[in-house]
Specification:
TIM Barrel, two-stranded antiparallel sheet, 292 residues, 10 helices, globular, alpha/beta
């Protein structure tokens, strides 16, 4: 078997026990927010959220990643209490109605919604801020004893694409300098399962996103004990290259989906072990072809 088809299994503490992933993991995106860049307003009622979660699982998602706040460029975050009030009931609904083995992640950058979501049944905290927006986040994750997704960004979503936030001496070296002390701090606090997300589309220009993707293997090799997650699905780095931006209907664009499949294949080749996507079926196609 060619070495590029090799997958390094990894473990995570989920549902009170160790779970081993033997193949790349597909995380299905569930945006329960009116202003998501891709599917804003489509899944705002509890019934719609539950129906879409079931469809994501049917399409091959291994993890459901639920968020109630948009992190698109220019977006404004909610106050932590308001986010918790939206997020926890939906987690509770999904935990009650979905199969018992379903793995639920929550996309939040504040410790209060994170704690309330785990109390309601969430398994993973996916933090786009890498602990920058809430000084209590790292300690809270340690207390909750759940896997933590540590993402790279600079500045709040409302300002992250401003010029001062997209200046890098060397994008890989800068990400190494960002991740390394945070990983050390999390380990010191007792967080055992730390997954990394390089933050495509966050405080990066289109060209920087592609440089990062082409050099992703350097990050993967530097952090062999921290599974890499990539979230490339339908992002503007694809649509801008294709000169075909998403329209106001938020309808899936075939070219954007094919672009996502292409870039996810490159990410898998670089050693990514988790793919965060809107369309799990296409991600599963790539995985099945590459890891037979």
């Amino acid at each position: 078997m060619d070495s590029w088809l090799h997958f390094s299994p990894f473990n995570a503490f989920l549902h009170g026990r160790q779970t081993t992933f033997h193949r790349p993991v597909v995380m299905g995106i569930l945006n329960a927010t009116p202003d998501s860049f891709y599917d804003g307003g489509r899944y705002t009622s509890p019934e719609a959220v539950l129906s879409h979660a079931r469809q994501l699982l049917a399409d091959g998602a291994d993890i459901i990643d639920l968020g109630v706040v948009s992190s698109r460029p220019g977006a404004q975050l909610l106050r932590p209490q308001e986010e918790a009030d939206r997020l926890a009931p939906l987690v509770r609904l999904l935990r009650k109605e979905l199969p018992d083995h379903t793995i639920l992640s929550v996309d939040t950058c504040y410790s209060l919604p994170a704690a309330k979501a785990v109390e309601a049944g969430a398994d993973i905290i996916n933090d786009i801020s890498g602990g920058q927006f809430d000084p209590e986040m790292f300690a809270t994750v340690a207390d909750l004893n759940v896997p933590y997704i540590l993402m790279h960004t600079r500045g709040l979503p409302s300002v992250m694409q401003q010029a001062h936030n997209t200046q890098y001496d060397d994008i890989i070296e800068d990400l190494l300098a960002y991740f390394s002390p945070k990983i050390d701090e999390l380990y010191r606090l007792g967080v055992n399962d730390i997954w990394l997300d390089p933050g495509f589309g966050f405080a990066k220009t289109v060209d920087q996103n592609y440089e990062l993707l082409l050099r992703l293997g350097e990050l993967v090799n530097h952090f062999p004990d921290n599974p890499m997650l990539t979230a490339l699905s339908n992002k503007s780095m694809i649509t801008k290259r294709l000169k075909n931006d998403l329209d106001t209907s938020y309808a899936p664009l075939p070219d954007s989906e094919l672009g996502t499949l292409t870039l996810n294949t490159l990410a898998l080749r670089a050693g990514t072990r988790l793919l965060r996507v809107h369309s799990p079926h296409l991600a599963k196609v790539a995985i099945d072809l590459l890891y037979q």
